[in-house]
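This section describes the prediction task in plain terms. A model, or a person checking by hand, is given the sequence of a single protein chain and must write out its three-dimensional structure as a string of tokens. No templates, partner chains or ligands are provided. The sample shown here is typical of the held-out split.
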Amino acid sequence: MPINIEMPKLSDTMTEGTLVKWNKQVGDVIEIGDVVAEVETDKATMEMEAFDEGVLTEILIQEGEKAPVGAALGVLLEDGEVSGVEMDDGHHIDCPCVISSAGIGNTFSGLLPTDVVEESGYENLLETVRPSMAHLGVYIGLKETAQQLGLPKTNFWIYPGNDYDAALDRFLQDKDAPFPVVYISFPSAKDPDYENRHPGTATIEIVAPAPFAWFEQWQGTTWGKRGEEYETFKAQLGERLMQHLYEKLPQLKGKVDYYEVSTPVSTEWFSGYQHGELYGLDHTAGRLRQEWLGPCTKIPDLWLAGMLTTMAMVGMRKMTPLMKKIYS
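The expected answer:
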């Protein structure tokens, strides 16, 4: 928690003082007994010692300014404790705690200082988990309503056969092999208010796995400016996924107004997931045994949110009684 450095009462008759000089700057580590400033009282200029330890994060009273006894002159924060967020433009948002839902990788590999991650042990812990597989997305707009088009309110899970592991292996070795799974959803058909907001239209989404390695050459490039080779590859994949839709719902041919394809580097660009992962961390048995993947981190006042933390915190052994409580 933040600790105020207050104007001390340095004499019996002192009611206010002038801060003559700061001996510490923002970012300095302060120990108990350090002379942090010089204060002019009604009788003399005296040294002001620290009664607490921490990092000086803010100076509230500038040199030459007066402040009454007990007023906050600056703010200390316990070393290693979270105090807020620094934006890309340098703007600071101060707060007593930070809750990150940016994902495990982004939080510890991108948002926190490297030395903090190393000192807290997360650098080694991150090696025990891996990102989930990346994905493709197709976002489709249609000219008629879901009812007119006969769209279902359920999802399609399309597999090329019963041996999923073999299908996945073939796909990872050969990008022209059938997709090991294709998921098709119909958001507008499920939304009872959709037609009131968007009359005469409907939407469909398609999701399928795609290794990030296929798109690694475009990592870090600008969305919409990745070149002809990328656009051609993306279009080919999109056409293959659209064929799955037409095979299931042939009445949609000629009814599609537009569709847009996203790739793992689209996810990287818009969501910050460095490998275009769909579900954050890979849900392996080893990952679910990681006790450190909980909402509370080792760094004071830094918390994690989202599915990645609750799944790991609860674990499969405790999931059944929890679900019984939720649905009873």
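For orientation: The longest helix spans residues 228-248.
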